[in-house]
Amino acid sequence: MLDVIEAKTPDHFDEVRRLCWEYRDFLMTLDEKSVRVAKTYYPEDVYTKLMDQIEVEHATPSGGVRLALKNGQAVGCGMFRTIEPGVAEIKRVFVSDAARGTGAGFAIMTSLIDQCRKQDFDVIRMDTGKPLEAAIRLYLSMGFNPRDAYFEVPEIAKDTLVFFEMPLRKGMVKKPQNS
């Protein structure tokens, strides 16, 4: 059984932090350039501070955090925050090895998108790394469109990151064909 819940309790946020560190560790297993990019964006000291502030950085009503549970065990997470009026940014969507291929990524993304709609955002933006091909396929299948960078990108990351945007309108998110 797979459920996606809003992270609310200290225990939920501890699980989100654990998954975010697992995500960072996963990024460090990619190709050499992707590892350099991850170290640029997520040096350990900066990432530690970010994890310490995750409840504040992504607090409602300007953000939100989701936790995917498979048979009661935390197996994935994702979050969003406001980056400018009407614009949400989805960050750190991650599914552990134990839940890959179960639809957990789709479920997390659907929950985040639905919450952004409920909170009256006009658009969602996000980025990911080119090596994360399954994530790219998921985002495209859900209606995200490729776009130019929406923040200043260091030279090292210019050909490594992929940027997306989804205008929010009424209607359902379409389910990916391979879920």
Please give a structural write-up.
The chain has helices at 10-27, 32-41, 44-52, 54-57, 104-118, 133-141, and strands at residues 2-6, 63-70, 73-84, 87-95, 123-129, 145-147, 161-167. With 179 residues, the protein is α+β, with helices and mostly antiparallel strands. It has a single domain (2-167), classed as Aminopeptidase (3-Layer(aba) Sandwich). Strand 4, helix 5 (104-118) and strand 5 form a beta-alpha-beta unit. The radius of gyration is 15 Å and the shape is globular. The protein starts with a strand and ends in a 12-residue tail after the last strand.
List low-confidence stretches.
171-179
Morphology: globular
Secondary-structure-based class equals alpha+beta
- CATH class membership: Alpha Beta
Number of domains: 1
CATH topology, what is it called?
Aminopeptidase
The DSSP helix count reads: 6
Helix amount, in percent? Answer: 25-40%
CATH architecture: 3-Layer(aba) Sandwich
Strand order of the largest sheet: 1-2-3-4-5-7-6
Mean pLDDT score, rounded?
A: 92
CA-based gyration radius: 15 Å
- How would you spell out the order of helices and strands? EHHHHEEEHEHEE
Summarize the main sheet.
7 strands, mixed
Total number of strands? 7
The CATH homologous superfamily is called Gcn5-related N-acetyltransferase (GNAT)
